[in-house]
Write a structure and sequence with these properties.
With 405 residues, this protein is α/β, with parallel strands linked by helices. The protein has ten helices and 18 strands. It has a seven-stranded mixed β-sheet, covered by helices on one side. The structure holds manganese (II) ion. The site of manganese (II) ion has 7 residues, from loops.
Length: 405
């Protein structure tokens, strides 16, 4: 059985003022081509399908068009779960129609998929909350899938009966162990898919985009450890962290496929992949990352003058750039305009001001008896290399006066 694992499409995501939709279209086309070339039997999409709870029509259309193509006329199972960026209800809203194509959308952790069969021969044989057994047309044995969409603390309490004192890790572990024992044996392929934060106990917290941080601590725990996954499972397909990486090889390969595009500058140097998993009943899964080539590169660059920056920008079109400009003054409007004119993908220009070296014996002395306004002005000048303007000083005085009342 061949399974393609992908995640974190974040359809509709923007980078600053730029839409990434044209690139998302290209990279999803690439994923479709890989599925066709590799003749995969099932596609797993591990959450964060959309970037927001209320995606635009263009993003929605891209999702449905893509999963429809992946389903290959009902001959390939496509299972997608909700991530923390998705509205669970929105994800499930098209489930009824999607099922007739062999596409299963799971928004809530404990929803149960009804038994059905597509004309192409994808058949759901058994199901339970958080579990599916699917017969695929080209395989003589079934795929068992334990799946856990992202859920916030409130939802988890409702669906899984979590009480404050119980750690999420324990509750999920227990649920997975029960499903593993009840439904998974070596007569089929057993896989777990989830959207959450998992890490080896000795692993450092990864650098992740700001908007992904809160979920690292769902339920007040730091991370799901590899030992939470049941021994019957042969592969764990994770979504949430944007970097492709293996969390652990034990008890089975536990992987994040990562995003198909670099979505933030913290991912600037990363290569992007989908994961091809070849697995048969009772044998270890073989995992092959396939690199994705579509999409623009994100580059962080630092320059000491505008001329060098412009030269580099002109030599690197079709990229997104976060530009740091080191100088001893602020960047004037004219230079800024010239920079933006030189490149169509500047996301931000960060000024880095270096102050002229002050000789030790010239160190200005500060008299703490001075009034607050003049002390503030001196401090501001020290920090920012220029004196505060009138507007700021007026505001400062207002704050001081409000404090005194
Ligand atoms: Mn996520």
């Amino acid at each position: 059985m061949k399974i393609l694992h992908t995640a974190d499409w974040h359809l509709g995501k923007r980078l600053g003022e730029y839409s990434r939709l044209p690139e998302q279209e290209l990279v999803l086309e690439e994923i479709c081509q890989i599925s066709e070339k590799e003749e995969v039997d099932a596609v797993l999409i591990a959450g964060d399908l959309f970037d927001t709870f209320h995606p635009g029509n263009d993003a929605a259309e891209l999702l449905y068009r893509t999963v429809y193509r992946l389903s290959n006329g009902g001959q390939r199972a496509v299972v997608a779960i909700a991530g923390n960026h998705d509205s669970p209800d929105r994800v499930e809203s098209t489930d009824l129609l999607a099922r007739s194509c062999g596409i299963i959308f799971q928004g809530h952790p404990k929803n149960q998929v009804p038994l059905f069969c597509t004309e192409g021969g994808v058949r759901v044989l058994r199901s339970a909350p958080g579990f599916l057994e699917i017969q695929l047309p080209e395989c003589s044995y079934p795929l068992r899938l334990l799946s856990t969409p992202y859920a916030n603390e409130l939802t988890l309490k409702r669906y899984l009966g979590i009480k404050k004192s119980e750690a999420l890790q324990e509750v999920l572990k227990q649920q997975w162990q029960e499903l593993g024992q009840s439904y998974c044996d070596d007569q089929g392929v057993n896989v777990l898919m989830a959207h959450l934060y998992a890490a080896s106990p000795d692993e450092e917290m990864p650098e992740e985009p700001e908007d992904e941080k809160p979920v690292l601590h769902i339920g007040g725990i730091s991370a799901i450890g590899p030992d939470a996954f049941p021994e019957q499972v042969q592969y764990v397909a994770l979504g949430h962290l944007h970097r492709y990486h293996t969390v652990s090889q034990s008890p089975c390969p536990i992987l994040y496929s990562g995003t198909p595009l670099s979505y933030s500058f913290s991912e600037a140097e990363q290569k992007k992949y989908v994961t091809l998993v070849e697995v048969s009943p009772g044998t270890p899964a073989k995992v092959v990352p396939i690199e994705l080539t579509q999409g623009q590169r994100l580059i962080r660059k630092r320059f000491f003058n505008t001329e060098d920056a412009i030269q580099w920008l002109e030599a690197h079109p079709d990229t997104f750039v976060e530009l740091t400009l080191v100088s001893d003054t602020y960047i004037d409007a004219k230079s800024k305009k010239t920079l933006y004119a030189a490149h169509s993908g500047i996301v931000s220009i960060i000024p880095e001001i270096i102050r002229p070296q002050v000789e030790a014996n010239e160190q200005p002395r500060i008299n703490l008896q001075d009034n607050l306004s003049s002390l503030f002005s001196r401090y501001f000048e020290h920090k920012r290399g220029q004196t505060p303007n009138d507007e700021l000083m007026t505001l400062f005085r207002e704050v001081i006066e409000a404090e005194e009342v």
